[in-house]
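[agent] plan:
  1. take the single chain provided in the ticket
  2. run structure prediction with default settings
  3. attach structure tokens to the ticket
  4. add a short note for the reviewer (M.T.)
[agent] executing step 1
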Amino acid sequence: RQQALTPADATVLDCPQAVISPGLINAHCHAAMTLFRGLADDLSLEAWLRDRIWPAEQRWVSAELVRDGTELAIAEMLSSGITCFADQYFFPEIVAETAVDLGMRAVVGTPVADFPSA
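[agent] step 2 finished; step 3 output follows
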């Protein structure tokens, strides 16, 4: 159990030319899908999912794709000030492992779908 910190324990930083803010939280993402970015973005959601995303996922989703896509997403999130994300996608154990490996905070859920998947 940690001991409570007091104001006397604080470190004061003098940064008059900087903005210091808490990390942002991405409360809903499918991190590995960064690798599908730009895939028929001009379609309606239903057509985009049915005609492009679901077939692409059926063909390409694997543990390796999820690791690579999650690594890219984490790099992008960290570069924009996001320090924690919530994810629900295939291979959640890989998403969690990747977040731990890269030192990123994450809440990882189990995907729920009414169709067969990887």
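[agent] step 4 note for reviewer: The mean pLDDT is 92.
[agent] ticket updated
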